[in-house]
Design brief:
5-stranded mixed sheet; 5 helices; 5 strands; alpha+beta; about 30% helix; binds FE2/S2 (inorganic) cluster; about 160 residues
Length: about 160
Protein backbone atom coordinates (compact mmCIF):
# COMPACT_ATOMS: atom_id res chain seq x y z
CA UNK A 1 0.00 0.00 0.00
CA UNK A 2 1.44 3.38 -0.94
CA UNK A 3 1.80 6.00 1.74
CA UNK A 4 1.91 9.74 1.81
CA UNK A 5 3.98 11.98 4.03
CA UNK A 6 1.91 14.37 6.07
CA UNK A 7 2.76 16.97 8.68
CA UNK A 8 0.07 17.77 11.22
CA UNK A 9 0.46 20.06 14.20
CA UNK A 10 -1.32 18.35 17.07
CA UNK A 11 -1.69 20.15 20.38
CA UNK A 12 1.14 22.47 19.40
CA UNK A 13 3.64 19.82 18.30
CA UNK A 14 4.42 19.08 14.65
CA UNK A 15 4.16 15.40 13.67
CA UNK A 16 5.45 14.10 10.37
CA UNK A 17 4.36 10.61 9.37
CA UNK A 18 3.93 8.44 6.32
CA UNK A 19 0.30 7.32 6.31
CA UNK A 20 -1.95 5.28 4.10
CA UNK A 21 -4.39 7.50 2.23
CA UNK A 22 -7.38 5.71 3.75
CA UNK A 23 -6.28 6.17 7.38
CA UNK A 24 -8.93 8.10 9.28
CA UNK A 25 -7.86 11.14 11.25
CA UNK A 26 -9.36 9.54 14.36
CA UNK A 27 -7.19 6.44 13.89
CA UNK A 28 -4.15 8.60 13.18
CA UNK A 29 -4.65 10.46 16.46
CA UNK A 30 -5.37 7.36 18.51
CA UNK A 31 -3.25 4.71 16.83
CA UNK A 32 -0.31 6.59 15.35
CA UNK A 33 0.07 9.34 17.93
CA UNK A 34 -1.34 7.47 20.94
CA UNK A 35 -3.77 10.27 21.78
CA UNK A 36 -6.58 8.02 22.94
CA UNK A 37 -8.53 10.82 24.56
CA UNK A 38 -10.34 11.21 21.25
CA UNK A 39 -13.01 8.53 21.40
CA UNK A 40 -14.47 6.59 18.52
CA UNK A 41 -18.08 5.50 18.75
CA UNK A 42 -20.10 5.25 15.57
CA UNK A 43 -17.42 6.07 12.97
CA UNK A 44 -20.26 7.45 10.88
CA UNK A 45 -20.33 11.09 11.92
CA UNK A 46 -23.36 10.62 14.16
CA UNK A 47 -22.27 10.48 17.81
CA UNK A 48 -19.69 13.28 18.03
CA UNK A 49 -17.39 11.33 20.38
CA UNK A 50 -14.46 11.89 18.03
CA UNK A 51 -14.81 15.68 17.85
CA UNK A 52 -11.54 17.63 17.65
CA UNK A 53 -10.69 21.16 16.59
CA UNK A 54 -9.26 21.47 13.09
CA UNK A 55 -7.73 24.90 12.52
CA UNK A 56 -9.97 26.12 15.32
CA UNK A 57 -13.27 24.61 14.14
CA UNK A 58 -14.91 21.56 15.66
CA UNK A 59 -14.73 18.60 13.33
CA UNK A 60 -15.51 14.89 13.44
CA UNK A 61 -12.20 13.08 13.22
CA UNK A 62 -13.93 9.92 11.95
CA UNK A 63 -15.18 11.71 8.86
CA UNK A 64 -11.77 12.86 7.68
CA UNK A 65 -8.74 11.09 6.36
CA UNK A 66 -5.46 11.95 8.03
CA UNK A 67 -4.09 13.12 4.68
CA UNK A 68 -6.79 15.78 4.61
CA UNK A 69 -5.31 17.26 7.77
CA UNK A 70 -1.90 17.66 6.16
CA UNK A 71 -0.63 21.13 7.01
CA UNK A 72 -3.44 21.71 9.53
CA UNK A 73 -3.55 22.37 13.23
CA UNK A 74 -5.47 19.86 15.35
CA UNK A 75 -6.42 20.20 18.98
CA UNK A 76 -7.60 17.15 20.89
CA UNK A 77 -9.01 16.85 24.39
CA UNK A 78 -5.45 16.34 25.65
CA UNK A 79 -4.82 20.02 24.84
CA UNK A 80 -7.29 21.26 27.44
CA UNK A 81 -5.80 20.34 30.79
CA UNK A 82 -4.33 17.58 32.87
CA UNK A 83 -5.83 15.36 35.52
CA UNK A 84 -4.13 17.45 38.20
CA UNK A 85 -4.75 20.72 36.42
CA UNK A 86 -8.17 20.77 34.77
CA UNK A 87 -9.05 23.72 32.61
CA UNK A 88 -12.14 25.76 33.61
CA UNK A 89 -14.48 23.80 31.33
CA UNK A 90 -13.23 20.43 32.58
CA UNK A 91 -13.46 21.67 36.15
CA UNK A 92 -17.02 22.78 35.53
CA UNK A 93 -17.94 19.36 34.08
CA UNK A 94 -16.49 17.84 37.23
CA UNK A 95 -18.36 20.17 39.56
CA UNK A 96 -21.69 19.85 37.74
CA UNK A 97 -21.59 16.05 37.41
CA UNK A 98 -21.66 16.44 33.64
CA UNK A 99 -20.35 12.96 32.95
CA UNK A 100 -21.10 9.43 33.98
CA UNK A 101 -19.40 6.81 31.82
CA UNK A 102 -17.37 9.57 30.19
CA UNK A 103 -17.42 8.13 26.70
CA UNK A 104 -18.99 11.21 25.14
CA UNK A 105 -17.01 13.63 27.29
CA UNK A 106 -13.99 14.36 25.06
CA UNK A 107 -16.30 15.21 22.18
CA UNK A 108 -18.56 17.26 24.45
CA UNK A 109 -15.58 19.21 25.78
CA UNK A 110 -14.18 19.97 22.33
CA UNK A 111 -17.58 20.99 20.95
CA UNK A 112 -18.20 23.15 24.00
CA UNK A 113 -14.77 24.75 23.62
CA UNK A 114 -15.73 25.73 20.09
CA UNK A 115 -19.17 26.98 21.15
CA UNK A 116 -17.81 29.08 24.02
CA UNK A 117 -15.29 30.70 21.70
CA UNK A 118 -17.70 31.56 18.89
CA UNK A 119 -21.23 32.05 20.16
CA UNK A 120 -22.97 34.24 22.72
CA UNK A 121 -24.86 31.26 24.20
CA UNK A 122 -27.38 33.66 25.68
CA UNK A 123 -29.86 30.89 26.43
CA UNK A 124 -29.62 27.25 27.40
CA UNK A 125 -31.49 26.42 24.20
CA UNK A 126 -28.53 27.82 22.26
CA UNK A 127 -26.20 25.54 24.19
CA UNK A 128 -28.48 22.58 23.54
CA UNK A 129 -28.60 23.38 19.84
CA UNK A 130 -24.82 23.64 19.75
CA UNK A 131 -24.53 20.23 21.38
CA UNK A 132 -27.12 18.63 19.13
CA UNK A 133 -24.45 16.76 17.19
CA UNK A 134 -23.02 15.12 20.31
CA UNK A 135 -24.85 12.17 21.79
CA UNK A 136 -24.78 11.20 25.45
CA UNK A 137 -26.49 8.03 26.62
CA UNK A 138 -26.05 8.68 30.33
CA UNK A 139 -26.61 12.19 31.60
CA UNK A 140 -29.79 13.48 29.96
CA UNK A 141 -27.71 16.53 28.95
CA UNK A 142 -29.00 18.83 31.73
CA UNK A 143 -25.76 18.71 33.73
CA UNK A 144 -23.66 19.20 30.60
CA UNK A 145 -25.66 22.30 29.71
CA UNK A 146 -25.30 23.56 33.29
CA UNK A 147 -21.53 23.04 33.20
CA UNK A 148 -21.17 25.02 29.98
CA UNK A 149 -23.53 27.72 31.26
CA UNK A 150 -21.41 28.13 34.38
CA UNK A 151 -18.27 28.70 32.31
CA UNK A 152 -20.06 31.13 30.04
CA UNK A 153 -21.36 33.11 33.01
CA UNK A 154 -18.02 33.25 34.79
CA UNK A 155 -17.03 36.89 35.37
S1 LIG B 1 -17.13 8.33 16.09
FE1 LIG B 1 -17.08 10.11 14.89
S2 LIG B 1 -19.10 10.89 15.01
FE2 LIG B 1 -19.19 8.99 16.08
S1 LIG C 1 -21.48 10.25 30.03
FE1 LIG C 1 -21.87 8.28 29.19
S2 LIG C 1 -22.32 8.73 27.11
FE2 LIG C 1 -22.19 10.69 28.02
Amino acid sequence: MSTRDITVTVNGAAHRHAVEPRLLLSDFLRGTLGLTGTHVGCEHGVCGACTVLLDGDSMRACLMFAVQADGCRVETVESLGRIDQLNPLQQSFHEHHALQCGFCTPGMLMTATDLLKKYPLATDDEIREGLSGNLCRCTGYAHIVAAIRAVKDQP
